[in-house]
């Protein structure tokens, strides 16, 4: 399944941009000619030379197979628009930003949302929880980046508490120091906040529903009759069982987080893959687009695999039966 | 729980699937606040864009028709952007264009998706397994990345209708999956067996026996599809991949970011499109939650 996802992504990835009526090489050369005053008649000649260099003159199926082979080795070739730079290097520079943002926000939102949903499902008499939870669910309907825009407006542009955009200060050079680390965290607050606020609700809804149905189970009544402490009931009997579908949902949700994070990065000009993707699309930089889409899809596929592997730890019942599907 | 008893007659009426009369409908909505609030939000937007076009001169939604970058004031309710678009007309037109994109893409997605789901679920066996597997693979691939590429390919001269078609290219996956699983449940229902025994053809069974029973479900997944389509289209437009010459809400957000409205403090350019979109998404979400409750009485009054 994981391999199929990666293959499907790679294939779509290869064919869709090739249907474009534009030639990236000619595009780039025309752009360069505009700035450096090269004779326009030479462009045709030059673009053919470059086509041969990038292998764009071979038949499509040959390009396709060499492409699949390269993908398997993470060799995405050179960026067309920033020529001497390898795509893998561009991605490697941007990836930590994206992964850091995505993983930390997803985990925080998952933990907070699950706890909140569990509490709301468990304690259905609490006023605060009953008012708070619909509110948070409504927030889950709002896309991350719209929330991001609102946050930028009120907390960054108006109040000036946080920077409007970027991942670190404009003048500072990335390095391992306290100063820089603090700056990065400061810049990450708003992007993370917009993802967390908008995704807590998704987890809370699922968890509340599960908690309510778990409470109706016979083993809960039995445990209660045994006189177990309410706290133990909540954690070991309620939470533990209600968590299983949540973990499955986490795997499926990752795709959505990738989508959301790409847009959040664009809104905040965060230096991750989202902003890189936007830049390459504007300039039809095929190799970079392939690379980013491939890496992001791989991230989703791997996170699904990881959940599959962790699942037996959470649910002992699937350990014995061996693998199915 | 306490107030469930007195209104039980109204609720059974709604449950029967018969169209409840207006009074009963109103009484039902009072017990299902999310449906009510959601409808009110969506109606407000519909009125805004519908009446707005009649009352307000919307031809000023193009550049150079108002003083550039003017703050809201008399005559210019929402002010104007640096290109001189009257933002009030942009909002009126944009709301409609954005909703229309969602409706078209949602309708195509539902039609194609449920057809695929019905076929797959009805035939069963190997065909079903292959189709389901393909849908599952496609569902895990982050949609926006592929929409980005499609949109980038056809970018030049994209209209808002074209935008809807681009978004529809991936809008069928979820309906297909959901309809298929509903189909599996219904296929073995007693009345379907009955129809088979009495010699009805497969088409007849699917469209006359099964689809009517799927209707409430289809309505609710249509709302989901519309909401997802709007989400995707606005996302693409915010990246600048939308119709360049049409004042949709997503394009407004793109221009606003492109011309750094934040640094210039042009709040009248930022807040209206964001607010309208938030109202739209929350409205669709609430209507969907309300419909869920209507078609699935077990969810009712759980809090």
User: Average pLDDT across residues of chain A?
Assistant: 75
Low-confidence stretches of chain B: 1-17
Q: How many individual helices of chain B? A: 13
As a percent range, the share of strand residues of chain A is: under 5%
The main sheet of chain A comes to:
none
Average the pLDDT over all residues of chain B and give the rounded result: 79
Termini separation of chain B (Å)?
9 Å
Shape of chain A: globular
Order of helices and strands of chain B: HHHHHHHHHHHHH
Q: Can you describe what's shown?
A:
The complex is a heterodimer of chains A (about 325) and B (about 300). With about 325 residues, chain A is an all-alpha fold. In chain A, about 75% of the residues lie in helices and about 0% in strands. Chain A contains 13 helices and no strands. Chain A has helices spanning about 1-20, 25-35, 40-55, 60-70, 85-120, 125-140, 145-160, 180-215, 220-225, 230-270, 275-280, 285-315, 315-320. In chain A, helix 7 (about 145-160) crosses helix 10. Chain A starts with a helix and ends in a 5-residue tail after the last helix. The model of chain A has no long low-confidence stretch (mean pLDDT about 75). By secondary structure, chain B is mainly alpha-helical. Chain B is built from 13 helices and no strands. The longest helix of chain B has about 35 residues, at about 85-125. Chain B is globular. Chains A and B meet through helix 1, helix 6, helix 7, helix 10 and helix 11 of A and helix 5, helix 6, helix 10 and helix 13 of B.
